[in-house]
Amino acid sequence: MNLIDELTWRGMIHDIMPGTKEKLETETMSGYIGQDPTADSLHIGNLASLMLLIHFQRHGHKPFALVGGATGMIGDPSGKSEERNLLSEEVLQNNVNAIRKQLEKLLCYGKDDNPVTIVNNYDWFKEYGLLNFMRDIGKHLTVSYMMSKDSVKSRLEKGISFTEFSYQLIQGYDFLWLYENHNCAIQFGGSDQWGNITAGSELIRRKAKGEAFAFTCPLITKADGTKFGKTAGGSVWLDPEKTSPYQFYQFWVNASDADAKKYIRVFTLLDKETIENLEKQHDEAPHQRILQKTIAKEVTTMVHSEEDYEKALSTSALLFGKGSKEALSKLSERDFLDVFDGVPTFNLKRSDHGDSLDVIDFLSEHTGILSSKGEARRSLKENSISINMEKVTMEKSITKEDLLNEKFILVQKGKRNKYLVIAE
To answer: Which residues of 393-423 are buried (b: 16+ CB within 10 A; e: fewer)?
Structure first.
């Protein structure tokens, strides 16, 4: 299957320039995708368009990834209803370095015979004077052409600064520079980038008398209409310090059935036959969530590691009582709070007791998990109380050895009721 046919069945083609498919079928091309460093991490919305470059690479074409150290100083108006806040050079450089590392990992930098080349457009803009740029580049695109772009038209009523208005011209020059210096004749990205991409191809046509190509993928949306890649805690980031591998895994495994059928095509590299077989199995037993579990495994392993996936899997089991004290003790404080987010929390003042605390007093007077000593005794007699995944009796005493990460105790009553005690 050729590249465009594969991307088409995956639902990853939104716009495509005439002749692009034929060009890709007849020769090996160099192409690129750009990412502006608006934050110190990419998120899973960026991942959708990055998958285009990964497929491009896997089909034997030469991949380039551009980090926008220069365009990030301007701000892309695409999809924005108002002016962006400008970032300082120090913040931008930090963001550039962080995103570069993520791109290298995702695109197998230096690990095969077709490595990605990562470039920073600040390198060719830092010495380019304004007057020279206006004469050399600005002369080739008319104001009426630039005004026709959706990213500009949508902002005319509220207003758009000359800074953001000029963004498409600057991004267009990126395409021209890569065309002239690296023979990059194709650019791809999200559908919101179509206007900026076509400005670059037009610049190549007018100034270099060349021919350039492009295609874009749809912006991913959720079946219920809510924004893709957003949770109650905010965006789902690729940086494990911003979104833990456990939270990342949980985002995918909790996808709806309708979304899962779309995500498995867009975000995994599984082939058509495998995906169609998985969809058939899922339809026969949707309660087993085969699609969601497969996506979570594939994407968590790709973005983080197989070890992180295995840890997320075992950590998830703890939430459903399928774990042990040993497994609990291996959780970092961050993971512990992630796993038991939403579980009723109680505080335990260390100053209220010595080195040991009777379990009945612990459950009732010192935490309030159970309403009285009588209820605590009854529950213990019924063998329904677990401390850190282990059943306990009335003879149990709570000591510092019961503190996980030196501050947490997990209490469970029956199969479903969990309580998190935080020692202060």
So the answer is: eeebebeeebbbeeebbbbbbeeeebbbbeb
Residue 423 confidence (pLDDT): 87
| Domain boundaries, position 68 | 3-217
Check: CB of residue 167 under 8 Å from CB of residue 74: yes
Provide φ and ψ at 75, rounded to 5°. Answer: 100, 120
Helix, strand, or coil (residue 238):
coil
**Which of 381, 353, 382, 377 is closest to 421 using CA atoms?**
353
**End-of-domain residue from the set 174, 190, 217:** 217
pLDDT exceeds cutoff 70 at 258? yes
Domain CATH code at residue 101: 3.40.50.620
CA 189/CA 17 separation, integer angstroms? 13
Mean pLDDT in residue range 339-356 = 78
193 and 61 in a single domain? The answer is: yes
Number of domains in the chain: 3
pTM for the model stands at: 0.83
CATH of the domain at 393: 3.10.290.10
97 vs 66: CA distance, rounded Å: 12
Are the C-beta atoms of 39 and 195 separated by less than 8 Å? no
The residue among 173, 191, 217 that closes a domain is 217
**Angstrom distances, CA of residue 406 to CA of 52, 332, 366, 403, 410:** 46, 11, 18, 5, 12
Share of the chain above pLDDT 90, in %: 60
Q: Is the pLDDT of residue 21 over 70?
A: yes
Of 35-49, 136-150, 222-236, 341-355, give the range with the top mean pLDDT. Answer: 35-49
d(Cα 270, Cα 298) in Å, to the nearest integer?
9
Q: Among positive and negative, which fits the CA dihedral 118, 121, 122, 127?
A: positive
